[in-house]
Structures are given as structure tokens and as C-alpha cells.
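Thread: sanity check for a docking pose with adenosine-5'-triphosphate

Original post by kr_44:
Hi all, I'm comparing my docking run against an independent structure prediction. Below are the sequence and the ligand SMILES. Could someone generate the full complex and paste the C-alpha cells? I mainly care about where the ligand ends up relative to the chain.
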Amino acid sequence: MSDAALITPIQAAVRAQPKALGPLQVRDLTLRFGETTVLDDLALDLGTSGCTMIMGSNGAGKSLLLKLLHGLMQPTSGRINWGSQAPCEVTARQALVFQKPVLLRRSVAANIDFVLKSRGKDKARRHRLLDHVGLSHKADQPARLLSGGEAQRLALARALATDPEVLFLDEPTASLDPASVLAIESIVNEARSRGVRIVFVTHDVGQARRIADDVVFLHRGRVAEHSAAADFFPEPQSEAARNYLNGRIVV
Ligand SMILES: Nc1ncnc2c1ncn2[C@@H]1O[C@H](COP(=O)(O)OP(=O)(O)OP(=O)(O)O)[C@@H](O)[C@H]1O
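Reply from moderator J.T.:
Ran it for you. Here is the predicted complex with adenosine-5'-triphosphate included:
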């Protein structure tokens, strides 16, 4: 009898399921553009759940770090592992939402349908996804006519349509009004409560206080501090983070 015949249906189902992504481990991560070093021997460990905020001054390297973690760029040197896997092996199990939403020049509904179809997911989920982000009534409207906050909610719905295990958010609320900011935060909180791991870049200290479990503070391409949010905001340990939170210019 072949080995395959010995596998029970339950074992087969377990084998077919990809294992959940393990913890993130980053070591000696360096990124250079020519002579300029933008990430410098960076080390970072993240657990398997919760919402991590990445904070730091303009140019600290936050967006580039997200792209490296997501496998969209290659570092000059160093190592990134999600459990035992490299970022490029798990890109499809993650989603990234940019500050400026990237949408198709089609209807709101077609934007969701495209993602569902390309990932082989049930098209019937479109209605639930649009409902979840409060855009059901705009389904037939061209996506290019959406307001900034609506477009960002559609971008989030597209990201969630892929059932990501990790959701990267790069300043998704930077130019939105307070109600739109809270709407996005509520969608993110809901995803976190379902076990989606969130890695979120923001300059909005109020937002970070509202939703961060832990904070990674980047300074000059390195992690100056990584603390639980409950410790970071009242008592930041690094001078760079203290200056940033006090509104002083950090260079
Ligand atoms: N392709 C590139 N070539 C050269 N330098 C680059 C390139 N892309 C980014 N940089 C530089 O790398 C540094 C980090 O960029 P990054 O976009 O990660 O900053 P950030 O922390 O996200 O900043 P911000 O808060 O302003 O969005 C910046 O000084 C930027 O100018």
C-alpha cells in the first residue's frame, strides 16, 4: 500500500492548510541606495498577533521597512523570517494598504470582484465586504469618484478580500477627517480581533495610543525602542522617542 493511502481525510485536510505564519524575526537588516544607508543593521522581533505601530520621524525608514517585510523589496544584506519562511514566500498571505489607495479605474464592485477572482475566492463575498466598510450603496459608482476616506475604505476591503494573515498599513488615515479615521480604525480593530496581525505606520500619536499593542520606534534606520504601548506613551525609553512625542524636531 502506498503512503498516500495511509493518510486519513483529517490528516489530508490539516496538510492542505498552510501553517499560520510564525513570529517575525529580523536580523542585521541593511538597505542602501548607493552610498546612502537608510536601514542600518536593524533587528526586530514581532509576535504572532496584535497591532504593532511603527513610528518615527520623516525619512526614518518606516515605509521601506514595510516593503521589505512584505517581500516587495530585497535588502542589501540581512535576514527577515516569518517563522521559517522568507518574505517573498508569504507575500500572497499578506496585504499592504498604502497612504494613497491604489484602485482600478472601474466600479467599486469591480474593484472587489477583481481581487476575489484573482485569488479564487467566492464572488458572493463582495456584498459582505462592501457592507463591512460601509460602501454597499456605492457599489456601482466609479471608484475614481470616491472621496479620500471612501477610497481608503475600499482599499481596505480589497486587502481584506485576500484574507491576509498580516495586514500592513502605511499611513492609511493621513489625510482623512476624524470620522473617517475612526471608521478605518474600527475596521482594523475588527480584523485584529479575528486574528489578523496588524503592522501599522502612523504619525498620529492619538491613533497609536488608541490601537497599538506595541510600538516600534525607528530612528536613523534602526529600532531605537520597541515597547508595549502601555509603557511607550507614558515613559518612552529613548531620547529620540521622547523628543518625537514632545513635538521636538528629531534628526
Ligand atoms: N529609491 C530610493 N533611493 C534613494 N533613497 C530613497 C529611496 N527610497 C527611499 N529613500 C530614502 O530612504 C529614507 C527612508 O524612506 P521611507 O519612505 O522609508 O521613510 P519614512 O520613515 O516612511 O518617512 P515618512 O514618515 O516621511 O513617510 C528617506 O530618506 C528616503 O528619501
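The mean pLDDT is 91. Hope that helps with the comparison, let us know if your pose agrees.
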